[in-house]
Write a structure and sequence with these properties.
The protein has about 240 residues and is an alpha+beta fold. It has three helices and 13 strands, in the order H-E-E-E-E-E-E-H-E-E-E-E-H-E-E-E.
Length: about 240
């Protein structure tokens, strides 16, 4: 996405202002399930960016008797975000299924011009001052004074990559606070439902070299504002559980 630093700042600021829903404390299923929702407002909030006029479109649809979210992107960008409050233990499993119509020919996770994905799931974490340097703490303190809320910290993006090999972890080309993890890649499995399971704790340690702090948000996004291409994605329920 273009101007990704302010985009992710907006995303994370939104997480600090959303009210914590009642289901967040009910069980390990701490993300509102698409299959049981009557509206996309049921625990999710739209994520739209001031600098991007063209939005991705999200709708609840039936796929083989199960309700899922369909995302359509055509040269634009927007997402959906759910606020959660999860303290990871030794392991924390993130499981979901998704499907895409195809990947972007010009997509490339290593380049700003190719930072678009037909499907991605991102996990946002609380800021950990103990692991930050003096200048990072000072910069964040200034931002907090301006915005009036404590800003979150790092993020993991699980992506349906265009060229990046499955299992590869790279720094987002716009910000070092976000790491991109390819969990599906290329067109070979396009049009098929793919189930993905990841250990968030292991992934965070591999990406940032330390144990993860509290998770404060999980979101989905299909975007194509950099490449100008088109794709459709389908997202099934997102499960988070301690094994």
């Amino acid at each position: 996405m273009s101007s990704l630093v302010p985009v992710f700042t907006l995303l994370l600021l939104l997480l600090t202002t959303l009210p914590a829903p009642a289901w967040a404390e009910a069980s390990d299923q701490s993300v509102p399930p698409f299959s049981a929702m009557t509206s996309l407002d049921d625990g999710w909030a739209p994520l739209e960016f001031p600098s991007i006029d063209k939005l991705s479109r999200y709708t609840l649809v039936d796929e083989d008797g199960v309700q899922v979210v369909r995302a359509e992107t055509d040269g634009g960008a927007s997402g959906l975000i759910a606020r959660v409050s999860i303290v990871p233990r030794d392991r924390l499993i993130l499981r979901w299924r998704w499907k895409v119509s195809g990947v972007f020919k010009a997509g490339d996770a290593r380049k700003k011009s190719g930072d678009d994905y037909p499907a991605r799931i991102y996990v946002a974490f609380q800021f950990d001052p103990d692991s930050a340097g003096f200048f990072e703490r000072a910069k964040r303190k200034t931002a907090e004074l301006l915005y009036g809320d404590a800003l979150p910290g790092n993020a993991l993006n699980y992506i349906w990559a265009n060229k990046l090999p499955v299992g590869e972890i790279v720094t987002n080309p716009f910000t070092e606070q976000t790491m991109m993890i390819a969990v599906t890649s290329g067109d070979e499995e396009a049009g098929q439902w793919i189930t993905v399971e990841r250990d968030i704790v292991a992934d965070y340690k591999a990406a940032f070299g330390e144990a993860p702090p509290e998770i404060m948000g999980i979101g989905i996004m299909s975007d194509s504002d950099n490449t100008g291409e088109s794709a459709t994605a389908w997202y099934g329920d997102i499960l988070v559980e301690h094994p």
